[in-house]
Design brief:
Layout lengths: L1 E3 L10 E7 L5 E8 L6 H12 L10 H14 L7 E9 L2 E7 L3 E5 L5 E4 L5 H7 L5 H5 L19 E2 L3 E2 L5 E5 L1 H4 L4 H8 L4 H17 L12 E6 L11
Antiparallel strand pairs: 1-11, 2-3, 3-4, 4-5, 5-8, 5-9, 6-7, 6-10, 10-11
Helix pairs in contact: 1-2
């Protein structure tokens, strides 16, 4: 798990992350990114993560979705709180289900690099990329990539829930804010994450993302931003802590 504010900004880190053990040996991995340009982004991200820390008391078909709906309603009633994106993965046994809103995103890949799950960003550019109207490079360099069409703290919130997928011991799970996805190509994330020890993977992702943020005048994507991610493999959670 890694989280740190943008290296080129003096503001506070508006990302928040959490790894929680729920009831029935379930695990929840969550990354929230407070929406910039709005007051209260940091508080919104932290508030969502704090709510997701608590496993629902009563059995529910969609506990993550229910919690996000509840916190969205409470945030709308509180003018002091802004908005945030969220990507949350619920893992129970060998099954994984994704829930997300906004442009924090998740990726599940096999040891050989096969993509088992990839969430699409809820933004005009993300939708155009998912539908094939934009290439990955065009999307990464798009002037309106920062615009969102879905977030917690908005009256139009909707939580996208994936189908449950089978998770094997060699699969790697990446949950991250856009500080990662806006600075690396998908192929780079896959190649770095798929097989090395998670501590090594975390260091490589941080180093490359920060290098890109610091050198915008290159052919590579570069967007200074808060950077947060969680890496997971079955039965193994290894942490990389920011300075």
């Amino acid at each position: 798990m890694f989280t740190h504010r943008s290296p080129l900004a003096s503001k506070k880190n508006e990302d928040a992350v959490g790894v929680f053990c729920w009831e029935n040996d379930e695990i929840l991995l969550a990354v929230a990114d407070g929406v910039g340009g709005m007051p209260g982004g940091e508080a919104a991200a932290r508030r969502v993560i704090e709510v997701l820390a608590q496993s629902p008391v009563e059995p529910q078909d969609d506990p993550v979705g229910s919690l996000l709906t509840q916190v969205n309603q409470s945030m709308l009633a509180d003018d002091s709180t802004g908005a945030t994106t969220i990507s949350a993965l619920r893992i129970g046994g060998h099954q994984l289900t994704s829930h997300h809103a906004g442009d924090s995103a998740s990726l599940v890949i096999g040891k050989r690099g096969k993509i088992k799950l990839q969430t699409s960003c809820h933004s005009p550019v993300g939708i155009a990329l998912a539908s094939g109207q934009l290439t990955e490079r065009q999307a990464l360099f798009h002037s309106k990539r920062h615009l969102l069409s879905n977030m917690v703290g908005d009256t139009g919130l909707w939580v996208e829930r994936s189908a449950s997928i089978a998770l094997s011991a060699s699969d790697t799970v990446v949950v991250a804010s856009d500080g990662l996805w806006d600075n690396l190509f998908l192929s780079e994330v896959i190649e770095l994450a798929r097989k090395d020890p998670l501590e090594t993977v975390a260091g490589q992702l941080v180093d490359l993302a920060r290098q890109r943020m610091a050198t915008p005048a290159t052919p590579d994507p570069a967007k200074p931003d808060d950077l947060s991610f969680i890496l997971y493999r079955m039965h193994t959670i290894e942490d990389s802590k920011g300075p």
